[in-house]
Amino acid sequence: MNKKAYFYIDDTIWALRDITRMLPESMFDTPFFNMLKTAHEKYGLKVQLNLFYRTDSFYGNDDFCLADVTDAYKSEWEANSDWLKLAFHAKEEFPDYPHINAKYDDLKAQYQAVEREVFRFAGKNTFTYATCAHWLPVSKEGVKALYDCGVRIMDSTVGYTFDLEEYPERAIPGQDSRILNNRTPEARLRAMTPVPQNQFHSLCSYNNLSVEQYNETAGNLKYITDEETKMKFKCFGGLFTCINNLDMKGVEESIGKQIGNEYIGMVIHEQYFYKDYFNYHPDYAEKIYKMSELLSSNGYEFFFMEELVK
Prior knowledge:
By secondary structure, the protein is an alpha/beta fold. About 30% of the residues lie in helices and about 15% in strands. The protein has a single domain (about 5-155, about 205-310), classed as Glycoside hydrolase/deacetylase (TIM Barrel, Alpha-Beta Barrel).
């Protein structure tokens, strides 16, 4: 069996700001990119960075967007595009669930803005079309827009779905009311059990897998093809594979439970790398090294999700 591992980093924008403002001799002289290159050289890591178009005002008025990214390292991006890819994630970090009620034209414009800038500063070969949308849920119109932009496979939620109007008192606490207003019919509550309990797990939209579909595609290289949009859905990371929710022991246990599967997907979020982030993880790099070492030593080859549908 040819065992595959997929690793991606969500919410990426600050690392691009670093290379633009520091202007080192090599982009890999910055701490974030040096960490990734070290893991690649030691363990064969390949990584997909899912991009925000711009920084969010939540962190202050120091605005930065992909249009500001220097093109000084374009040749370096291109030379390393066999193991380091960039992809669309969202316009910015907030609000939560930005694509759950997405309109076709809006999401298409956001996607193309990210694509255009990546082509400019990193080259076409660095861009990948496997998409993990921010917070995961995407409306049906949004899925169609992504497909028309070239996306053929996308990350998906998993669970039993329930109409928001059936359980209005169980809407997710603290979520922006815009999620509930003028919502699309496919914007729903989801839970991991078939009968609603005291609390729902999250929200979902068109790109949601049933528990049966998840079980069919978990731990292997299978996916579900949606007949209407032709988009392929797969849960990229699976359950308990978000590294920033795990300590070092948790990383080892999570991977240990999956060893032997045909496919293992792991994810982390960029901001936890930075010391000035409120939830900074000082062992961020060590966890990535440990993940890479465990997967490599157990016979897993890192790949890009887009390869499944090419």
